[in-house]
Design brief:
Blueprint lengths: L13 H18 L13 H4 L1 H7 L4 E2 L6 E2 L10 H10 L4 H26 L5 H12 L2 H6 L4 H18 L6 H15 L4 H6 L2 H8 L5 H31 L10 H4 L5 H6 L9 E2 L2 E2 L2 H8 L1 H16 L9 H16 L11 H8 L13 H25 L6 H13 L1 H4 L14 H12 L5 E5 L5 E3 L2 E4 L3 H4 L4 E3 L8 H16 L4 H9 L2 E7 L12 H9 L3 E10 L8 E3 L7 E8 L6 E5 L4 E4 L15 E3 L25 E5 L45 E2 L4 E6 L30 E2 L10 E10 L4 E5 L11 E6 L2 E6 L6 E5 L5 E10 L9 E2 L1 E3 L9 E3 L9 E5 L8 E4 L2 E4 L12 E7 L4 E11 L3 H7 L6 E4 L23 E2 L8 E18 L8 E2 L1 E6 L5 E4 L5 E16 L2 E2 L2 E3 L8 E2 L3 E2 L1 E6 L22 E3 L2 E3 L1 E4 L2 H5 L4 E5 L6 E3 L3 E7 L4 E10 ...
């Protein structure tokens, strides 16, 4: 008997050892990546506390995070990712080692699976399949993401194992093949359903490309059934979760973004994920992936490897050509679906719409990368086998081809070899102070959620990056944080955004503390150790707001953190980052995790959840009403049908829920300006966190004769790369405030950026137009402006030394005025800005907000400014920290302009709050008689704490800083009377963001300047002389430089500044008292005008409130009483003055009792995460029980008393996001609530795992190996006619590249036909190979030279795409027109040489 030949990969074969060696090499490669450090990958819990994480995943409702949330596919980690990490962590292995072992497993599974699959398919010799296996495990997508989001490439690693049993050489029955494939699918896991689904595509195509027989059809159906059973453990929970989940798919990247770079070239290379292109303030989002974009060698290498594999399809002897060709084509179409670049599919636009609609779950088409990559590496093995045959025929050295191939694979794996795959932010462990803070919080008595601030997209710290919030894994107490992916729901997200806006503005107040308390927040954790690149608001702002709200700081943890490189001569962010403890904790007074509110004290609110914090002091609970409803509000499944609205305490109408766009990728400053009804939204299906049932959002309109104010872009737009925050809208140039400005938002040169106003009827603007340019050094120095009207255009060259400019206007009436930045200096990349455009008889003008109407009588009308901006001076304790970079303009500096429509007329009392307006008027108010008055030639900080007078206020914590462009900065001191002076002393506080003067020039009473050098102690002196004016001009200085991680460019020098100028001699002058009450007459406040009737007002407050930009009370005065609102549209305005800007205006109906009783705190217990018990006291009236957690449509409750059956309770949304239930009056009892879908979720998990165990048992009981019956070998490939093959190629070309693809397909057919006619028959196959090889190499070279620009439209961007599409189509056409050689049917039996291929002979076994 002849012995069975040795098979590669068995224990007796050297290839077994080589496979082990390959796995060891891959493992070593992974351990080279940031050794000793845990890097941010997938879920923090996997390395911090995997057992607790897996325990939480067993329930659908998770009260631990984000104010109560549904588990976001956490069940998917139950197999195999979670147990792998949990087992090794519990063994005591270091977290970083566990992480590297997991990465190693991914690469080794991919490597071994590809090897076995290639051998089973007979794709090549052992060494060529070995190379192909490495090419798959080290492919660009695998290396780009394995250290970033490893669970997303785990399905890619498992894909060969899912296909392998179906094509295996082993003598298995169909059941054995199906069982093994299904188990592989089960091990893929369910973290990402689409990525898991992608592994099913190639096996499905394998069946579809077989001959249509009954056996094949039954096998396909059996395999699909087994796969469903294998996936049931996560599929059922996914369906349950999807039925109750908020629409978070609408709040992540849109299809425009996810398909942005999915051009044919990138799909072919394996670099179609948009994050590989993204560069953030911290560097590349995917460091390894970015190298495949930037490096020409990597671009060329990755393409050449793909093209070599692709060319194997032109060879008639390539095994399984039909399957592999269909696989590559299907993969390319799936990956590029929705891409709308210059070369895109014919259905790209509608597909993109579908990906933002019904097919949103499939939006990330890059997850189908494995459908392209696996066939390509299998073809690579075949291609290398053919090349080896040719090299032997050419008598080349046998090691040459393996050496060159290995070099190519190593080249493509260079980012891994260079240890540059992980993100920055690796850490040895979570900083100990976070563990200490978590332990301290868990030890505190009482309930209460921990709110982590400030908001940030990801948790990136000075000591490392965890991406997820550390307290998520370290603490048992519930926590909440506003990050990039809010999972709690639209209502709580809007509420958290409002809290963050208050904190980011430094705007405290008692209502902030009340809002936090009724939100169930017991502690606020300020993470001072966030990385500077993660801070989007000044670090001091949250502290100022929390202290202003009356919260007490109760604990500090960790070492002081401050910017690296801070010194006497250099500062980061202009001395605004003060060394403070890493973590500081504030206690919220009287937090309520559950509360009881009588319906009589509950108010109905027309507005949004973001209005509730500002109204917290008015009512203990609000029920939000839809704008079109009359007696109920449908909010996410809840309604008011069970509530008698007559029992409610009244109705509040607010101006919230405005028409805006939201930047979903930002957690801070993420709102656009207010928008008109017809203003275009960014190009995505959903542009805001929309609360179901609230109807249309409130838009703005323009008073005649203005129809619209628009711009090419603005820095307040959410879809521009140059976004700077609120307050830079186009209408900022018409608000009458020179401190605000329209700023263009597109990155790059601002030349061509424009600002425009449209009129309702033609306007005669004269021949000249006065505009004021912005004084900021960070805006573009526009050299000329072009004015375009209906009558033509005129260009004016501007004077660089003047802010006020006269622009020439074409004569004649016009309905449109456009001002264009016509020219800017070369290299300018900052935005163009217009501070004011003077339209005679029209400006200043402000938009009017059309407040959503309420039904029935309205008791309170609440109007407010939503985006308050921020002062340049923020308070840290009792001292200000000032810097111009901290300032942010207010959205509505012109005041409040509202249209309020009521059903019922009434008389209303007026009161409100104002904020001080920076400028000379408010600074004059701060002066006291007899003090020294100081003026300056310029200033960098326009807040009151940065005014020139601060140099004589006796406080070294304040000071003046000159303007950046001031070449001769001068301070002039006006004395109240002549005094004999002998000199002055100059002092500069360390935290003053300025260079320190060393020389100065002093002029006394306008006399000859004295050039003086500042001596020891900061003093200069002169002979005693009586003077009344001292002018100090600063000369040389000790330069202090500043830098900012968020601003590009080198460090820049700060202008000169001083904290105190102390006059020496007879200079005893009074200084102002910051705590004195302001004495302001009637009429000093902003006028309130209602339907043409004006009410005079008066402001009350202290000087300190002005200095700290706090809110001051504002009420009518004199004979003013109530105002009348009509049962119609009411025009209400509160126009800003030169001192005050209204930020809140409240109109309270006469006779309405605004003093409602506070809520009653209740004790809440949770027997399980999905169950709640609340003990209720006796109630004399119907009431609301409010749980401080997100409302969920699956929650139900019943009231259990001492007698009788439990009473079902009506669920309600309270405050726009909290879970509420209506309880009737009655004796004490217990409210028992449960989240119903949790039962189906847990049943799905249990039954799914039970079914999986049965599947495993069935396979073990009947493994499907040869048992005396005839084994089932895969069927032959289907045979397609030439027209069918041509039609298939044409459809593919059309789907891949649209008309381009179809034309290139025709061109390919013509080229190959001509070649066939003019070439000898024996050379046709060589030419059919050479033509696509040539176009592919040229396309790869052009792409490497010009760099991949998938959205580019110029020749250098489009031509490589066209050539590569031509290459693909040429290959497919060549494959379609060549028939495989006919072979005899092989012996079918235990010793069969292998599965039957597409009719081609087995691969050459020679090395």
């Amino acid at each position: 008997m002849t012995a069975e030949p040795e098979r590669p990969g068995t224990a007796s074969s050297p290839w077994g050892a080589r496979l082990v060696l390959g796995c060891l090499a891959l493992t070593a490669l992974m351990f080279r990546q940031a050794p000793g450090l845990v890097v941010p990958d997938t879920k923090l819990d996997l390395t911090a506390d995997p057992l607790a994480f897996l325990g939480r995943s067993l329930h659908l409702w998770d009260p631990h995070g984000f104010l109560g949330q549904l588990q976001n596919q956490a069940y998917g980690y139950l197999l195999p990712v979670g147990p792998f990490h949990a087992f090794l962590i519990e063994l005591g292995l270091p977290a970083w080692v566990v992480q590297r072992l997991w990465w190693s497993v991914i690469l080794c599974v991919a490597f071994l699976g590809t090897w076995k699959l290639a051998r089973a398919l007979g794709m090549g010799t052992p060494w060529t399949t070995y190379v192909a296996a490495f090419a798959y495990a080290l492919s660009p997508r695998m290396l780009s993401e394995v250290t970033i989001t490893s669970v997303e490439v785990w399905p890619m690693a498992m894909a060969p194992w899912v296909l392998l049993p179906l094509v295996s050489r082993a003598p298995l029955t169909w059941w054995g093949r199906i069982w093994r494939s299904a188990l592989a699918v089960a091990l893929v896991g369910g973290v990402n359903a689409v990525a898991t689904g992608a592994v099913l595509v190639l096996p499905t195509l394998w069946f579809l490309t077989r001959r249509r027989t009954r056996e094949t059809l039954l096998a396909l159906l059996g395999w699909l059934a087994a796969v469903v059973v294998a996936m049931a453990w996560w599929l059922v929970p996914l369906l349950v979760m999807g039925a109750h989940s908020p629409p978070f798919l609408d709040w992540i990247e849109s299809a425009v973004v996810s398909t942005l770079v999915a051009a044919p070239s990138e799909a072919l290379r394996g670099t179609s994920h948009w994050l590989g292109y993204l560069i953030t303030s911290s560097g590349p989002a995917w460091p390894g992936g970015r190298q495949y974009v930037d490096s020409g060698l990597l671009v060329a290498g990755s393409l050449v490897i793909a093209i070599v594999g692709l060319l194997a399809l032109t060879r008639s002897r390539t095994p399984h050509r039909l399957f592999l060709a269909v696989g590559v084509g299907t993969g390319l179409v799936l990956v590029t679906a929705g891409h709308t670049g210059a070369v895109s599919g014919v259905l790209a636009a509608p597909v993109q719409d579908l990906l933002d609609g019904p097919l949103a779950a499939l939006r990330n088409t890059h997850k189908f990368e494995l459908v392209v990559r696996l066939p390509l590496v299998l073809l690579l093995a075949s291609a290398l086998t053919q090349l080896a045959r040719w090299s032997r025929q050419a008598q080349l050295h046998r090691a040459l081809l393996p050496f060159v191939t290995a070099c190519a694979v190593v080249l493509v794996a260079a980012p891994g070899l260079a240890s540059t795959l992980p993100r920055v932010g690796g850490h040895e462990q979570i900083a100990p102070h976070w563990q200490q803070a978590a332990d301290w919080l868990d030890a505190q008595p009482g309930d209460g959620t921990v709110l982590v601030v400030p908001a940030a997209s990801f948790a990136d710290f000075t000591w490392g990056s965890t991406r997820d919030e550390p307290l998520q894994s370290l603490m048992e107490r519930p926590f909440a944080v506003r990050d990039a992916v809010p999972l709690g729901g639209a209502g709580s997200t809007r509420w958290l955004d409002e809290i963050q806006r208050r904190l980011g503005s430094g705007d405290g107040g008692p209502d902030l503390a009340q809002a936090l308390g009724r939100g169930g927040v017991g502690w606020v954790v300020v993470r001072n150790d966030l990385a500077l690149t993660a801070h989007r608001t000044p670090q001091v702002a949250p502290h100022q707001a929390l202290v202003g709200a009356g919260l007490e700081r109760v604990a500090d943890f960790g070492p002081p953190v401050g910017p690296a490189g801070e010194s006497d001569s250099h500062t980061v962010r202009q001395r605004t980052v003060v060394p403070t403890p890493s973590v500081q904790i504030y206690a919220v007074p009287d937090p309520m995790t559950a509360r009881l509110v009588p319906l009589a004290d509950t108010l109905r609110l027309t507005g949004g959840p973001e209005d509730v914090p500002g109204l917290a002091g008015l009512s203990p609970a609000y029920l939000l009403e839809g704008s079109s409803a009359t007696d109920s509000a449908d909010l996410d499944g809840a309604d008011l049908d069970g509530v008698d609205l007559d029992e409610l305490g009244g109705t509040v109408l607010s101006d919230g829920y405005r028409r805006r766009a939201v930047d979903f990728g930002r957690a801070v400053d993420n709102l656009s300006g207010m928008m008109t009804p017809d203003q275009a939204m960014p190009d995505r299906r959903v542009n805001d966190y929309l609360v179901p049932g609230l109807g249309d959002r409130a838009p703005i309109t323009w008073p005649a004769p203005v129809a619209a104010v628009t711009a090419s872009s603005s820095a307040s737009d959410v879809d521009v790369l140059g976004r700077a925050g609120p307050g830079y809208d186009p209408w900022a140039a018409l608000d009458g405030d020179p401190g605000t400005a329209w700023l263009s938002g597109d990155l790059g040169s601002p030349q061509g950026q424009w600002w425009q106003v449209d009129f309702t009827q033609p306007q005669d603007l004269g021949t000249h137009l006065t505009v004021r340019l912005s004084a900021s050094a960070f805006f573009a120095p526009v050299q000329s402006w072009r004015v375009v009207t209906d009558a033509g255009s005129e260009t004016t060259v501007v004077d660089a030394d003047s802010l006020d400019q006269e622009l020439t206007v074409p004569e004649g009436p016009t309905t449109t005025l456009r001002i264009v930045a016509a020219s800017v200096p070369a290299g300018t990349v900052t935005g163009a800005a217009l501070a004011e455009v003077d339209l005679p008889g029209i400006s200043p003008i402000a938009p009017d907000l059309q407040v959503r109407s309420a039904s029935g009588p309205v008791d309170v009308v609440s109007l407010r400014a939503q985006q308050l901006g921020r002062s340049a001076c923020l308070m840290l304790g009792q001292r200000p920290l000032c810097a111009g970079l901290q300032a942010q303009p207010m959205e509505e500096p012109a005041g409040l302009h509202r249209t309020v429509t009521l059903d019922t007329a009434g008389s209303y009392a007026v009161h409100g709050q104002v904020m001080p307006v920076d400028g000379e008027a408010i600074e004059e108010l701060l002066r006291e008689p007899g003090q020294v008055e100081v003026s300056a030639s310029s200033r960098d900080v326009f807040a009151t704490y940065g005014r020139p007078d601060t140099v004589v206020d006796g406080d070294e914590g304040t000071g003046w800083v000159a303007g950046v462009l001031d070449s001769a900065p001068t301070l002039t001191l006006e004395l109240p009377q002549e005094r004999e002076l002998t000199g002055l002393r100059v002092s500069s506080d360390y935290f003053l963001p300025a260079s320190r003067p060393s020389e100065l020039s002093v002029s006394l009473d306008g006399g000859e300047p004295m050039d003086l050098v500042i001596g020891d102690g900061g003093e200069v002196s002169w002979d005693p002389v009586e003077v009344s004016e001292v002018a100090v001009t600063f000369g040389r200085s000790f330069t202090v430089t500043t830098s900012d991680p968020l601003l590009p460019g080198p460090a820049r020098g700060l202008p000169v500044g001083v904290s105190e100028l102390t006059l020496l001699g007879d200079a005893d002058f009074p200084v102002p008292d910051p705590d004195r009450a302001l004495s302001l007459p009637c009429g000093s406040g902003p006028d309130v005008t209602v339907n043409g009737t004006t009410v005079r007002t008066q402001v009350t407050g202290t000087a300190r409130e002005v200095l700290e930009r706090d809110r001051l009370d504002w009420r009518p005065c004199g004979d003013a009483g109530s105002v009348s609102l009509d049962a119609a549209a009411n025009q209400i305005t509160a126009v800003a003055t030169d001192r005050w800007v209204p930020v809140e205006l409240t109109l309270t109906r006469d006779g309405f009792d605004a003093e409602l009783a506070p809520a009653t705190p209740l004790e809440l217990t949770r027997p399980t995460p999905a169950e709640v018990r609340v003990d209720l006291p006796a109630r004399t009236e119907d009431s609301l029980v409010v749980l401080a957690q997100n409302f969920g449509s699956g929650w139900s409750a019943a009231l259990a008393g001492e007698e009788g059956a439990p009473t079902p309770l009506e669920p309600l949304v309270v405050d726009g996001w909290q879970q509420g239930f209506v309880v009737p009056a009655g004796v004490a009892g217990t409210l028992e609530a449960r989240f119903g879908p949790d039962g189906a979720y847990r049943a799905g998990l249990g039954l799914g795992f039970g079914a999986l165990l049965l599947l495993v048992g069935a396979g073990l009981w009947r493994p499907g190996r040869q048992d005396g019956t005839r084994p089932a070998l895969p069927q032959r490939a289907a045979t397609l006619t030439l027209p069918a093959r041509a039609a298939l190629v044409g459809l593919f070309a059309l789907a891949l590249a649209g008309v381009w693809g179809l034309l290139l397909g025709v061109l390919a057919g013509v080229v190959l036909t001509l070649v066939a006619r003019r070439t000898a028959e024996g050379s046709r196959s060589a030419v059919a190979l050479a033509v696509p090889a040539l176009t592919g190499v040229v396309g790869a070279a052009l792409l490497a030279w010009a760099g991949p620009r998938p959205q580019g439209s110029d020749l250098t961007a489009v031509l490589p795409q066209v050539l590569l599409v031509l290459t693909i189509v040429l290959v497919l056409v060549a494959a379609a027109v060549t028939d495989p050689p006919r072979l005899r049917t092989p012996h079918v039996g235990p010793r069969s040489a292998g599965p039957v291929s597409d009719g081609s002979r087995p691969a050459d076994p020679s090395p």
